[in-house]
Amino acid sequence: MKSVRVNPKQAIFTEFASSDQGEWIRVITDSDTKATIHFSYSDNDNRSTEADDIFKGGTF
Q1: How many other C-beta atoms lie within 10 A of the C-beta of residue 8?
Q2: How far, in Å, CA of 10 to CA of 25, rounded?
Q3: Residue 49 and residue 51: Cα distance in Å, rounded?
């Protein structure tokens, strides 16, 4: 289990490893608050940074 403390007016990035096990995330506060919680899910991107031949010669 992972626990993260975020201070007022602070943003934090927390990465979860693919080996981390869990099915839910709980967000709690210790006082009345206005907060936004944002989650981004992604997978490894193995694409090349080279433009494909279909784009050669075009003006973009």
Answers
A1: 7
A2: 19
A3: 6
- Overall pTM > 0.85: no
Q: Report the alpha-carbon distance of residue 45 to residue 33 in Å, rounded.
A: 36
**Nearest CA to 41 among 22, 7, 16?**
16
- Four-point Cα dihedral 34, 27, 17, 4, nearest 10: 80
Q: What digits encode the pLDDT tens for the residues 3-50?
A: 899 998 899 999 888 888 888 889 999 999 888 998 888 888 898 888
Q: Give Cβ neighbours of residue 22 (< 8 Å, ≥ 6 apart).
A: 1, 16
Listed residue (22, 21, 13) closest to 40, CA to CA: 13
